[in-house]
């Protein structure tokens, strides 16, 4: 993904700034500008030294006055992509249906304005800012491309009234020139991001940034808003529903966008250069506006469509991100290296842990309510009756979600206790995926029922009519998924602060590499195989029978692999905690046999159950070895301190 290059942005120093001490180890020469002097010893007489006020001005560190040839190529590609996306508002995406309202001026503005801004910044002597804008725009291009593939797969199921709103029932529809313009626009934007990354990358150490927790959290909120129903519809030809209720291209596209938003935001904040970081956040906000604004406009301009809270929330969150991009991101500007050495520790670890623990507890509470509340509301209207009869239905995976909530609540409470916070935080940073694993299994019941729509009963006109709607449990379960993502980001941010605050130089222990690798491989296999077998029941998986629970399986597998990889690079104590959290996930997966299979009846262990148990054993063994390595390291360090 082009967003991955944000973290490798250009490190640019203000020309003529005061020389850095030799202990910093950074070269004063700006990449791409060999004529710049290495120090200020040879400053031209009479040339005034920049003041502190000038050094703190926005974009003061963007010293490159001309874009490189590669960056010019990226800007051209971004401009061509923007023109293609704007032209898609004129050219129909399908001959079977046109836009539901006059959307082309708005679509052109959303597509062209960021590209024009990037070119103007580059022409005005701020190429780093222009390149950062391109990187931010490219971060969402893959997700938007997958989202637009729905026009080719099954156009009538798309919820894109700004481009496609039928006026009759359609079984299928062909694609038109507008669809190919959309594809070209996204491909060109992604290519521009790749070229911009290659033009701006270097290996300088990134500066410490402000808003490291707030901006990714806002990005998660925006992504969660995009996963909800884009509009409410009174139009019989537009079936408005959330991403999880829609077909796979739309779901995949929205999930890619929701995942790319916090990832790209975090990478932008890690960019070495201030101007690249700001430009990337601004471009990311502009790209998110391009996704969230059209459904809001459709709800405002059409009487049969109504604005929903999800896209509106996404607009508000990304607008705040854009506002934060206009502030200085680098912490402690104007301080020397000596000043930084005296204040190396980041304050506020208590508040980071408090936020993480409260988010974890809120996630567990929402999951508990989602487990007990009904997932589906069933309404039956008998012929001749004046009042409908209501009923509720639960998910067979509700006990699975209940146990996942309890598993998360324990480390979340431990994070709030100072004595256990350092150990409980890494466990929480992995255990949150259990909510996604169980929550998607629970939501599958509600989504399967509501996709059936209104069904007429058997027996002709005298049969009752049933309607299926999402119950309160589905809403609480979805809220738990969003809170779980927020808790994960908070746990990651807290881990960064803990490491910087501790200042521990203990080297990672690689003696447990074999059991860690074995546990990771077995975990991936376990999540890809069914845990239980029931006659007539086909469980969702990773390799086949893809369904809503497959996203939970994929999330859990990715988190376990990430935790094991991080454990090999961590100090022994956090490594042991990470491996324990990964073992909890694989054990939770094995627990589906009694918790889910037991409610279905006649369940028997399948291959995934035994592989999950083996993965749990391997991960626990690796955690024990890491804990033992910590004890040995502590004794060795104590002996060195006692030595004369």
UniProtKB/TrEMBL annotation:
This is Uncharacterized protein. Keywords: Membrane, Transmembrane, Transmembrane helix. The chain crosses the membrane at residues 74-91, 103-122, 129-147, 179-199, 211-231, 251-273, 280-301, 307-329, 350-377, 397-417, 429-450, 470-492, 513-538, 550-568, 575-595, 607-628. Residues 32-42 have a biased composition (Polar residues). The lineage of its organism: Bacteria, Bacillati, Actinomycetota, Actinomycetes, Pseudonocardiales. It comes from the Bacteria. It comes from Amycolatopsis mediterranei (strain U-32). Residues 1-66 are annotated as: Disordered. The keyword Glycoprotein does not apply.
């Amino acid at each position: 993904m082009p967003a991955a290059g944000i973290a490798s942005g250009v490190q640019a120093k203000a020309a003529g700034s005061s020389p850095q001490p030799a202990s910093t180890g950074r070269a004063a020469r700006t990449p791409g500008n060999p004529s710049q002097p290495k120090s200020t010893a040879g400053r031209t007489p009479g040339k005034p030294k920049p003041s502190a006020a000038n050094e703190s001005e926005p974009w003061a560190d963007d010293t490159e006055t001309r874009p490189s040839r590669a960056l010019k190529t990226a800007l051209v590609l971004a401009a061509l992509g923007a023109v293609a996306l704007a032209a898609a508002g004129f050219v129909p995406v399908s001959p079977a249906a046109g836009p539901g309202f006059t959307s082309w001026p708005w679509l052109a503005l959303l597509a062209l304005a960021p590209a024009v801004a990037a070119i103007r910044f580059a022409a005005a002597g701020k190429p780093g800012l222009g390149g950062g804008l391109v990187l931010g725009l490219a971060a969402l291009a893959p997700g938007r491309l997958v989202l637009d593939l729905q026009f080719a797969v099954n156009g009538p199921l798309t919820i894109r009234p700004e481009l496609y709103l039928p006026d009759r029932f359609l079984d299928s529809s062909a694609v038109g020139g507008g669809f190919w313009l959309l594809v070209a626009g996204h491909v060109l934007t992604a290519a521009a991001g790749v070229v911009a990354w290659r033009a701006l990358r270097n290996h300088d150490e990134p500066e410490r940034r402000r808003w490291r927790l707030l901006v990714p959290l806002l990005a998660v909120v925006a992504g969660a808003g995009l996963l909800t129903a884009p509009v409410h519809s009174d139009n019989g030809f537009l079936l408005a529903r959330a991403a999880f209720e829609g077909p796979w291209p739309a779901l995949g596209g929205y999930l890619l966008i929701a995942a790319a938003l916090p990832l790209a935001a975090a990478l932008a904040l890690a960019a070495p250069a201030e101007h690249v970081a700001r430009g990337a956040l601004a471009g990311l906000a502009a790209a998110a506006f391009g996704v969230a604004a059209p459904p809001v406009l459709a709800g405002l301009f059409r009487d049969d469509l109504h604005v929903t809270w999800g896209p509106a929330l996404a607009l508000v969150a990304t607008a705040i991100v854009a506002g934060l991009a206009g502030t200085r991101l680098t912490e402690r500007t104007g301080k020397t290296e000596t000043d930084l050495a005296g204040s190396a520790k980041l304050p506020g670890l208590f508040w980071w842990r408090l936020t993480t623990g409260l988010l974890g507890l809120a996630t567990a509470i929402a999951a508990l309510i989602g487990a007990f509340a009904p997932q589906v509301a069933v309404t039956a209207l008998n012929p001749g009756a004046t009042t409908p009869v209501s009923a509720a239905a639960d998910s067979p995976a509700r006990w699975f979600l209940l146990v996942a909530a309890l598993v998360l609540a324990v480390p979340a409470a431990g994070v709030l206790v100072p004595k256990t916070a350092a150990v409980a935080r890494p466990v929480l940073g992995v255990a949150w995926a259990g909510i996604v694993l169980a929550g998607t299994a629970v939501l599958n019941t509600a989504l399967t029922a509501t996709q059936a729509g209104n069904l007429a009963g058997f027996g002709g006109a005298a049969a009752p009519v049933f309607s299926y709607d999402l119950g309160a449990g589905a809403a609480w379960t979805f809220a738990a998924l969003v809170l779980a993502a927020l808790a994960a980001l908070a746990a990651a941010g807290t881990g960064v602060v803990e490491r910087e605050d501790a200042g521990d130089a203990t080297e990672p222990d690689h003696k447990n590499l074999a059991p860690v690798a074995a546990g990771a491989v077995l975990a991936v296999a376990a999540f890809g195989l069914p845990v239980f077998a029931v006659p007539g029941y086909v469980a969702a998986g990773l390799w086949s029978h893809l369904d809503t629970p497959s996203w939970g399986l994929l999330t859990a597998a990715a988190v376990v692999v990430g935790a094991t990889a991080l454990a090999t690079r961590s100090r022994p104590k956090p490594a042991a905690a990470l491996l324990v959290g990964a073992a909890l996930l694989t054990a939770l997966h094995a627990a589906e046999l009694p918790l889910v299979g037991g409610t279905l009846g006649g369940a028997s262990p399948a291959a995934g159950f035994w592989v999950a148990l083996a993965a749990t054993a391997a991960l626990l063994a690796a955690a024990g070895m890491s804990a033992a390595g910590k004890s040995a390291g502590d004794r060795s360090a104590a002996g060195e301190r006692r030595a004369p």
